[in-house]
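Researcher: Please generate the 3D structure of the following complex. Treat every line as part of one assembly.
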Amino acid sequence: MNIEQILDKVYLLPGALKLKLYQSIVKVSYPKGHILLRADKIENSIYFIKKGIVRAYSKTGDNEITFWFGKEGDTILSMKSYVENQKGYEDIELLEDCELYELKISNLQKLFYEDIHIANWGRKFAEQELIKTEERLISRQFRTATERYKDLLKNNSNLIQRVQLGYIASYLGITQVSLSRIRAEIK
Amino acid sequence: MNIEQILDKVYLLPGALKLKLYQSIVKVSYPKGHILLRADKIENSIYFIKKGIVRAYSKTGDNEITFWFGKEGDTILSMKSYVENQKGYEDIELLEDCELYELKISNLQKLFYEDIHIANWGRKFAEQELIKTEERLISRQFRTATERYKDLLKNNSNLIQRVQLGYIASYLGITQVSLSRIRAEIK
DNA sequence: TTCATTTTTTATCATTTGTAAAATTTTTCA
DNA sequence: TGAAAAATTTTACAAATGATAAAAAATGAA
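Model: Done. Output below.
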């Protein structure tokens, strides 16, 4: 998925402004296993995923909890860094070799006050992240782990093939053993 | 909490624009028990709470799940209606007699394209809702019901006094019986 | 391919949480 | 105030989930 499609999906900018935004974006690549964002750090960039898959996780005492997966077309950001310039909750680990587009937050912030279209692009961007976050919350609050696993199978079956089940179990809020039981029952 | 404080908390608008925004806002009052928003409806307004307390809940087959409480200074909105002009998940019920400020979404949308400050107000508004929603998700994903109850006791003790425990148990994701067990243990 | 490592599944037992029903407390309103 | 209704707590039992350990299967590197 290339950067033009990704930016247009948020809000269609006039051509000249699109170029202005492109000037702040660079393509970067990192290998599987790379830690892209860190929970103990204020992050300066957001990233759009051109190719690859990543997970957000957080360490809680002895173990860690995976709470988001990102794939082609998704945005990687520490919301706390982006919005409040504060440390966030998540480490982001690349689960495959990834091609990303990097955008410096400070450059974007500056543009918000220079042009109304870019301000509205930023508004739409936040609104869309909001909708996605609400969906995650609703899914977590309303559906059982079994239902959520079936949802993944239906809507993100490639994710299940590309990500090890321990991470998916953690994402679903259950142990890997429980997920195995669920998988055994479904068959 | 009056409307000026509520709007300023998002983003400080120049005086003239503040007036422009005020023109779209009216003060309304509804009694305890009133259903303000409905899940089966595309909502046309958002509301700011001047006084009172409300809950968002959703019906799931036989029972219902409470997934948000709003109090003075909070914004009541169906995110799906606001962002995507689609039906949302929630009914909003007033748990006390409430004084609210009502803002028509269509009026606000129009202003977004007329002035860059209001566009940035809208951006900040969405970003702040995003942070709050992420916090709810993180709390739900990382903390046990007992921990979350203790958080409420510490940070929102008045909420526990003003809201019946059945709703709080539902919000915590446990049964009322379990919450009673937790309360008995803490004492 | 083969061996070592990692990942997934299976089995057992302990703990937690839910369901249902009864008892108690609190609130509402005539 | 007092009776009825609503809300909360308690109890007993059942069901679901977690922890642990170990076996089986899959993956990856030499």
